[in-house]
Each structure stands twice: as structure tokens, then as C-alpha cells.
Amino acid sequence: MRSKVVTIDRHIIDQERSYPDASGRFSALLYDIALAAKIISREVNMAGLIDVLGLTGETNVQGERVRKLDAFSQEVMVKAMDHAGHLCCMVSEECEDIIPIPERFDIGNYVLLFDPLDGSSNIDVNVSIGTIFSIHHRVLDGRSKRNSPGTMADCLQPGFRQVAAGYVIYGSSTMLVYTTGVQGGVHGFTLDPSIGEFLLSHRNIRIPDPPAKVYSVNEAYYARWSRQQQRLVDHFKGVNGERGGGYKSRYIGSLVSDFHRTLLQGGIFMYPPDSKAPRGKLRVLYEAAPLALVCEAAGGRASNGSRDILDIVPGGLHDRTPLFVGSASLVNLAEQYLELPDESAGQGSES
Ligand code: AHM
Ligand code: MG
Questions:
Q1: Does the pTM of the predicted model rise above 0.85?
Q2: Chain centroid to CA 288: how far?
């Protein structure tokens, strides 16, 4: 038996002690996210038991059908986060515009960006899904003043400016994984439903490298990929004249689940551009950037194929980006293939 049980609250307080000027606001913000995660987790686990499955009949900003659990999770996140005075605004996959803080509540200095329930097409079939979150300080320049509502400039910041990021996976157990960046490391907490607490179960996660030989991509889109992308996957498989091979393929189709496996076991997850989706599918602000920060803080890498995800300055709240994330050596390999000139991409490789 372990000598010390560490709750997420205690862990956050311990971490905050290393910052003497910390106001406690940031810790309180993380508690509120953990509370929202518990409520969403409870509902996800009840999904087969109560009438929460099926469609609301509405369409969200991405033009996708909204499921009831998406709507529920969106409401839980907003209601858990809007009143405590930590935030100046929020951004969600489910809302086209910035979510303002209601006038009756105090305005804070953080921005929260989130995907309340990613992978929702998997809900009905009991596949693990997740919540992804990203936290920025607001931009305190001439345009944004303390106590004034959050602006686009506060939201459209590059990922390297995140002060924290993480995700919750609702799987065989519910886990919350978060980081405050490379210095703080990446820590995972498993929800003990009997006491309603997230307990530290994975301290200082490091992504394996040399990695597990695992690649994760929706290979059904092979015919729509660039020749470079096709050759990269041919390399993993050791076919069509590419050296390499010996890799396993794992693709759940639920980003948090595919990422969580990649983080713990190593490998590479890819959502590349294709002829139908030239900028990929995943969103910069609340999908790619937070997972990139987690991965980099765990010793991995995240790229859009040619540059670090964390360097991307989004032009809009719902901008999309290709994503290559996982063990650094495999993301480097992916970039090498993707940077091949078109003419050589058509020929056999000696890579
Ligand atoms: P969502 O945000 O609408 O739930 O979609 C994102 C999901 C990710 O969880 C997953 O990685 C991806 O879509 C799967 O897409 P595809 O079905 O094209 O492979
Ligand atoms: Mg999503």
C-alpha cells in the first residue's frame, strides 16, 4: 500500500507553493475544471441507463449533429466556470462566438478554451470520449484591461503561451491529465468514484522514446492524402518500396483516447490534411494546442507537418490544423517525409 494518497486539490496546492506570488486563482480554476469533469463523468457513466443518448436535433457551429451529452457537457463547463471571477471569457467547440462572463459576475485574468465532449460520435457505442481544456492569461496590453470582458486578442494566442492544458478521459476509469508546461511536468489523476476524488495515479508522465512502434491514423483516407503522407504510412507498414515496417496500427477515432494511449505507450497519432479537408479536421485552440502542450511537457513533440503546433497563431476561434503528435523521434520522421519535394515523393524511398 502507498504511504501517501494525493488528491488533485492537494497536488495543485503543492504545485502552487513553488510560485510564491501565486494568488490562488489558478488553483481555484483547476478545482472548478475537476468539479465539472466529475459531473460530466457521472453523466457519461449513466449514458446507457438514462435517457441522455440520441440527438437534440440541433446543429453546432461545425455543422455537426449535437448529441444530448455534448449539450449537457457544454452547460456543465460554462456553469462551473462562469461565476468564480477567474475568467474574462471562454471559447468552446460548441459555440461560434466567444462565451462572455455574465455581467453579474466578476471578470478575471484567465481565458478558458475547451472541447466539452470530444469524440461524441462514439458515445452511443461505449467508446471512451473526453473533455479537452486550455488556459491562457488574458493579454494585458492597451486593448484589454483588467475587469473588462475578454476579447478576440485574449483568445487567439499561440499555444506556447498556454499556462496550463489537459484533458479528461471518460474510459474504463475517468482520468484527468494536466500540465502547467515543461517545468511542471504532466500528471494524471484517476477518479475514485466511491469518494468522488481525483487521486494522483500517474506522477510525472514521460512519453516513451524510443517509442512503441505504433501509428494511429484514419487509413480510410489514404487515397485522399498527399504522396508524402502515403509514403510515411507505407514506411510504417514496410510496403511499396519503403523500408521500415514492423509497426502496429491503432485507431479508435476518439482523439482523447488515441492521444492518451500515445502518451502512455509512445507512438504517433496523425490527423493529416487530405484533398477533402486541406487543413485537417482538428481545431487549433481547444484540441491540437492543449494536447501539444501536454505532449511536449512529457518529452514528446507536436507538429502540423512543418512547424510546431505551439507556434501556430490562430486567425479564428475554430481554425483547424493537421496534427502529428507523439514520441519526438516519430514526429521528426513524419516531418522528414512530409518535407520531401513532390517529384521525389513519387519514387521509392531508401528511408
Ligand atoms: P468532434 O470534435 O466532432 O467530436 O470530432 C473530432 C473527432 C476526434 O475525436 C477524432 O480524432 C476524429 O474526430 C476522428 O475523425 P475521423 O472519423 O475522420 O477519423
Ligand atoms: Mg472535438
A1: yes
A2: 6
Give the Cα separation of 173 and 192 in Å (integer): 8
Q: Whose CA is nearest to atom 17 of ligand 1?
A: 253
Is the sign of the CA dihedral 93, 99, 105, 110 positive or negative?
positive
Pairwise CA distance, residues 2 & 257, whole Å: 28
Q: Is the CB of 254 under 6 A from ligand 1?
A: yes
Calpha distance 250→66 (Å, rounded): 27
Shortest-distance Cα residue to atom 7 of ligand 1: 119
* 45 CA from centroid of ligand 2 (Å): 19
27, three cell numbers: 488553483
Distance CA 349, CA 345 (A): 8
Residues facing residue 188 across a β-bridge: 177, 202
- Taking the CA of residue 117 as reference, the ligand 1 atom at the shortest distance is 4
Compute, in angstroms, the gap from residue 285 CA to the centroid of ligand 1.
15
* Cβ of residue 253 lying under 6 Å from some atom of ligand 1: yes
Q: Which three cell numbers stand for residue 211?
A: 517509442
pLDDT of residue 349: 41
Task: Round to whole Å and give the CA distance between 280 and 194.
Answer: 41
- 80, pLDDT greater than 60: yes
- Closest residue (by CA) to atom 2 of ligand 1? 118
Distance (angstroms) between ligand 2 centre and the Cα of 223 equals: 24
Please report which confidence band the pLDDT of residue 124 belongs to, taking 50, 70 and 90 as the band edges.
confident
